[in-house]
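Saturday, quiet lab. Running sequence design on the structure tokens for the scaffold JK sent over.
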């Protein structure tokens, strides 16, 4: 019995091999395949998107699209010019409307200052310079009219460069400065 080993069992028990390492290896291979397939899928999508972008750029850069863009740009420029003209016309319309009111008010003020002895034959307004021409029965009526205009505030710095007596009365011309900017068709 010298060869007998007491430390070994009499029968060898079958050793079960662990399949954990095999499962881990298979799981690793599966994950690599999955990730590789996903990257391949992303790469294919990238190529498809690049080809679609190239098609769109080719369409945008085509001569028909460029000519249409030029037409649109020309029309946009024309619309901008028309909008500017419309704004100018609206401004002018408002100015004319406001000037018409001023003119009507101004003429009413002049009419209120007239006596029964004074008749106007001509009224000229250029900027803020006014010239009145007419006839009066007396020199005093012309002087009173000048005083009334100045007192009403419609005319200042008024002068009478011409008062002429004739057989029907007095012909006069008055020059003055208006306090209001009055619309004149010649401007």
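Result came back. Writing it out in full:
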């Amino acid at each position: 019995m010298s060869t007998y080993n007491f430390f070994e069992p009499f029968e060898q028990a079958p050793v079960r091999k662990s399949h954990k390492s095999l499962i881990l290896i298979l799981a690793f291979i599966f994950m690599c395949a999955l990730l590789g397939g996903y990257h391949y899928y992303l790469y294919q999508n990238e190529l498809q998107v690049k080809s679609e972008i190239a098609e769109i750029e080719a369409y945008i850069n085509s001569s028909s699209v460029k000519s249409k863009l030029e037409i649109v740009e020309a029309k946009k420029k024309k619309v901008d010019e028309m909008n500017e003209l419309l704004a100018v016309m609206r401004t002018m319309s408002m100015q004319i409307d406001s000037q018409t009111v001023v003119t009507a008010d101004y003429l009413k003020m002049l009419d209120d200052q007239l006596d029964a002895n004074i008749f106007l034959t001509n009224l000229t307004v250029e900027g803020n310079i006014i010239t009145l021409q007419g006839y009066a029965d007396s020199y005093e009526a012309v002087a009173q009219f000048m005083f009334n205009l100045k007192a009403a505030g419609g005319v200042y710095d008024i002068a009478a460069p011409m008062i002429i007596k004739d057989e029907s009365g007095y012909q006069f011309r008055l020059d003055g400065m208006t306090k209001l900017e009055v619309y004149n068709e010649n401007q």
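Notes for JK: The beta strands are 118-126, 129-136, 155-166, 169-178. Residues 182-187 have pLDDT under 50 and may be disordered. Ask whether to fix the surface positions before the next round.
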